[in-house]
Amino acid sequence: MSGDQHRHPTAYEVTDYLRSVEEALQVRPVWGIRATGVKNLGYGSSIVLETEAGDVQTRNIVCATGAAARPNIPIWAPALNPRGPVLHSSQYLYPHQIPPGDVLIVGGGNAGVQLARELSPSHAVTLSVRTARRSRPRSSYTSVAGGRDGWLSRHAKSEPLLTDSYAALERAGVVLAPGVASAGGKEVVFTDGTARTVTSVLLATGFGPGDDWVPMHVRVTRARRTMTAIPGLFLVGFPRHGSRHADTIHGVWRDARAAAQHILARP
Ligand SMILES: Cc1cc2nc3c(=O)[nH]c(=O)nc-3n(C[C@H](O)[C@H](O)[C@H](O)COP(=O)(O)OP(=O)(O)OC[C@H]3O[C@@H](n4cnc5c(N)ncnc54)[C@H](O)[C@@H]3O)c2cc1C
User: Fold this and answer.
1) Is 164 left (phi over 0), alpha (psi -120 to 50) or beta?
2) In the CATH hierarchy, which fold is given to the domain comprising 11-68+209-265?
């Protein structure tokens, strides 16, 4: 994309950029059809992508369906039936969606903290924090995202808070609570055993990867970057299968380049 590489481009600029890439590469996107599975055919070099619209036989498949593709809904959430709504952060748009009164925000990550800040002037906000995070408000997302617990570990580290600290929220009137252990009807039970009746609940519980259509048995632990047990099937954009910042806009290029090199080198 042209211009200052440190500015935040508008959505229109990004759309134009993606169109120019499509044209340059002569790619024809097919929208609205989900991939549902993949299988290899005998010992040949063809593999089959299963989709809602039928099978596609091909030599290479790149799964790039996103590391944050679907809302994480805690198992206890469907049992909740409070007077107000139970929304995932992906469904929240503005404070008027939440009726006046109390709101329990579950999840002390960046989304939960930003929602707590936004709703604190108009609502009685409780923020349920299971794992406390450090606050580094002056850092950029890409400098801290994608960290691992240790050099040899494949476990992703929790991102620090890039916004208010918990102490700043408390000064703004937000009440902090432990993680939620269970829920039912109008009540949630926290991990310290205390219970509370709630009116509205916002689940800031994050997102999960969109690679669930790739069979478990083809995921190779510590495989060469992006490769799977099916020759010709590559996973791009998932730190577990690729490079450290693979789930960030500035970091996915290493995975993309590795997959492209593997494809070019295939017999
Ligand atoms: C709240 C949040 C904030 C972020 N902030 C930053 C930031 O500041 N800087 C940064 O660098 N990164 C940030 N990221 C990460 C950034 O959004 C991702 O790195 C980037 O969007 C990943 O692009 P992608 O193409 O790999 O996946 P996506 O953009 O998720 O695209 C995946 C595509 O696959 C499609 N898809 C999913 N499943 C299927 C299926 N079964 N069949 C067919 N298609 C399917 C989806 O519809 C989607 O179009 C943030 C992420 C989140 C969640």
Assistant:
1) beta
2) FAD/NAD(P)-binding domain (3.50.50)
